[in-house]
């Protein structure tokens, strides 16, 4: 009789490590599936990835796929996940820490460079609304608002600026034009 305990014993007998998953058959023709992958966190090294299908009636292995059987794209994905999760060793952790430090450095240095070279007059920061006219300003604000849907923190600032620009650009919204877009 094949049950979860016998499949678990088979997994240990055929060399699965301490972490693996067993998926139960889903229908009358289904099989037990024993797997260990980097994506689920069962394997630390992509070369240890392995999937075995076991017949639910006889308990025999009907299929086995390991890292060596993967296509080039599947191998790249498995290695990429291991690198992303820093599972490949001390060098991988050091590489991830350097990448994080580089992002922090770019944020801080970008802000510092802007601060040192910022315009002396506040009007120079007005952007599209002061130089391009109402149609271009509305288009720019809609694009910024669309990007804000994917990046909510950026969208809050864009929506606030856009609300003021659309109100000022469309006399129908306020009853009268309140901003001169001609630049004079």
Features:
184 residues; alpha+beta; four-stranded antiparallel β-sheet; 7 helices; 4 strands; 51% helix; disordered C terminus
Describe the structure.
There is one protein chain. The protein has 184 residues and is of the alpha+beta class. The protein is 51% helix and 11% strand. It is built from 7 helices and 4 strands; from the N terminus they run αββββαααααα. The chain has a 4-stranded antiparallel β-sheet, covered by helices on one side. The protein is elongated and about 80 Å long.
Structural class: alpha+beta
| Percentage beta strand | 5-15%
Shape: elongated
Low-confidence stretches: 173-184
Give a quick rundown of the structure.
With 184 residues, the protein is α+β, with helices and mostly antiparallel strands. It is built from seven helices and four strands; from the N terminus they run αββββαααααα. The chain has a four-stranded antiparallel beta sheet, covered by helices on one side.
């Amino acid at each position: 009789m094949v049950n979860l305990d016998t499949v678990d014993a088979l997994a240990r007998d055929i060399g699965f490590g301490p972490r693996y998953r067993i998926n139960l058959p889903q229908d009358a023709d289904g099989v037990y599936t024993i797997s260990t992958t980097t994506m689920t966190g069962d394997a630390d090294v992509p070369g240890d990835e392995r999937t075995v299908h076991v017949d639910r009636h006889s308990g025999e292995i009907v299929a086995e796929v390991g890292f060596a059987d993967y296509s080039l794209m599947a191998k790249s994905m498995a290695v990429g996940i291991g690198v992303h999760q820093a599972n490949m060793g001390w060098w991988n952790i050091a590489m991830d820490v350097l990448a994080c430090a580089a992002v922090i450095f770019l944020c801080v240095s970008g802000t510092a460079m802007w601060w040192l070279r910022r315009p002396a007059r506040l009007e120079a920061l007005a952007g599209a609304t002061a130089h391009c006219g109402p149609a271009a300003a509305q288009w720019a604000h809609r694009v910024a608002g669309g990007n804000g849907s994917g990046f909510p923190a950026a969208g809050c600032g864009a929506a606030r600026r856009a609300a003021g620009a659309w109100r000022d650009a469309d006399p129908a919204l306020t009853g009268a034009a309140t901003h001169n877009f001609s630049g004079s």
